[in-house]
Design goal:
Length: 106
């Protein structure tokens, strides 16, 4: 993969992680070290984090995702980390919820 393409991929992942953590922060679902690192991230940016802080956030996101699996597709339709927040509330990912609602209307 070229350098520019890798940079774009990394930037997209960082933005997804930042949005995910920001939404959890808004919902008061973070506490302890995760909350502190997230506040630092939102204030100073991803590049200001140490490798250990990045690892802690990545590990938290992976665990959150594995704990919130769509009952219908098993996360096959999940496109973003924030979809796992939706799953935590609805048991379905946004795509499967859309399909369910469409089926019920038809």
């Amino acid at each position: 993969m070229g350098q520019v393409k890798q940079w774009m991929f990394d930037k997209e992942h960082e933005d997804d992680l930042k949005d995910f953590l920001s939404q959890l922060m808004d919902r008061s679902e973070l506490e302890g070290a995760i909350e502190g690192i997230t506040k630092f991230l939102l204030d100073k940016g991803f590049n200001s984090l140490s490798d250990k802080q990045k690892y802690v956030l990545e590990n938290f996101a992976e665990n959150y995702a594995s704990d919130h699996e769509c009952e219908r597709c098993g996360n096959g339709n999940v496109a973003e980390l924030t979809d796992h927040i939706y799953i935590s509330e609805n048991s379905l990912c946004p795509m499967c919820e859309y399909d369910r609602e469409k089926f019920m209307r038809d």
